[in-house]
Amino acid sequence: MSTSYAFDTRQLVKQYLHALMARDVPALLACFADTVDWDIPGAQELAPWLGPRRTRNEIEEFYAQLFQQTEPVTAQLDYLLVDGPVAVVTGSFSTIMTRTGRLFSSRLCMQIVFEADKITHYRLLEDTLALARALEARPATSDRLEM
């Protein structure tokens, strides 16, 4: 692995993360290849932005849904590890789910692979149980029996 390649990968990841924090969809889409092996596993019936994607149009749809249904609160990068064209990012974040008004906080691990300075492989792992709970409709308040 050459140092310049690792530096380029590191810079490309930072460029992507800055665009993500700014919610700059055109800049985000410019980071991706025409075809991407993308997956963010989770309950797609609760969070339709989750799941596999392959094209820039599908990725654009992801960001439109995500940005419409979440309001960022905090984000912290812990580690950015680079090995040639592969980067692994770990950290944590909190966001308000606009549909329910609930706070969702999670650790994250992101794996990104680059070819020709574009993302070709993308995985994001987060606390999907906490996400599902933050998106679930609360049960209707009912009269409780007093004992």
Task: Give an overview of the whole structure.
The protein is α+β, with helices and mostly antiparallel strands and 147 residues long. The chain has one domain (3-127): Nuclear Transport Factor 2, Chain: A (Roll), CATH 3.10.450.50. 33% of the residues lie in helices and 43% in strands. It contains 4 helices and 6 strands, in the order H-H-E-E-H-E-E-E-E-H. It has a 6-stranded mixed sheet. A hairpin with a 4-residue loop joins strand 4 (86-97) and strand 5. The radius of gyration is 17 Å and the shape is globular.
Question: How are the SSEs placed, and which strands pair?
Answer:
Elements lengths: L2 H20 L2 H6 L1 E9 L10 E5 H14 E14 L2 E12 L4 E14 L2 E9 L1 H8 L12
Parallel strand pairs: 1-6
Antiparallel strand pairs: 1-2, 3-4, 4-5, 5-6
Descriptive keywords:
single chain, 147 residues, alpha+beta, 6-stranded mixed sheet
Based on DSSP secondary structure assignment, what is the total number of beta strands? 6
Instruction: State the distance separating the first and last CA atoms.
Output: 70 Å
What is the CATH third-level topology name?
A: Nuclear Transport Factor 2, Chain: A
Main sheet strand line-up: 2-1-6-5-4-3
Percent of sequence in beta strands: 35-45%
Computed Rg:
17 Å
CATH structural architecture: Roll
Biggest β-sheet strands, sense, barrel: 6 strands, mixed
Give the averaged pLDDT, no decimals: 91
Helix coverage percent: 25-40%
Tally of helical runs: 4
CATH class: Alpha Beta
Low-pLDDT segments, ≥5 res = 140-145
Shape: globular
